[in-house]
């Protein structure tokens, strides 16, 4: 397992997307375990956690897998909504 201080610094886009996904999953009552299971049966919730905290970037396949849990049809729709959400919030 990788320690937190061993993670490479992520960019602003990664952090903003993580913030949006975490806020959305909390609003919709989606657990980290549900997100992990949607990605792969073998995905551990800690994999989801480091992405929700913005310490690692989401990949598009994972975003495609969790998008339906969050009310979207694809990663592209989810990313577009996150972009608009940040503009409205900033």
UniProtKB/TrEMBL annotation:
It comes from Bifidobacterium bifidum. InterPro entries: Lambda_DNA-bd_dom_sf (IPR010982). One of its GO terms (molecular function) is DNA binding. The lineage of its organism: Bacteria, Bacillati, Actinomycetota, Actinomycetes, Bifidobacteriales. This is Helix-turn-helix transcriptional regulator.
């Amino acid at each position: 397992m990788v320690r937190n201080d061993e993670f490479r610094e992520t960019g602003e886009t990664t952090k903003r997307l993580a913030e949006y996904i975490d806020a959305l999953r909390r609003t919709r009552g989606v657990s980290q375990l549900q997100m992990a299971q949607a990605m792969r049966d073998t995905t551990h919730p800690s994999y989801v956690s480091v992405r929700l905290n913005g310490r690692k970037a989401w990949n598009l396949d994972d975003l495609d897998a969790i998008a339906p849990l969050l009310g979207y049809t694809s990663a592209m729709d989810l990313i577009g909504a996150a972009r608009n959400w940040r503009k409205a919030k900033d």
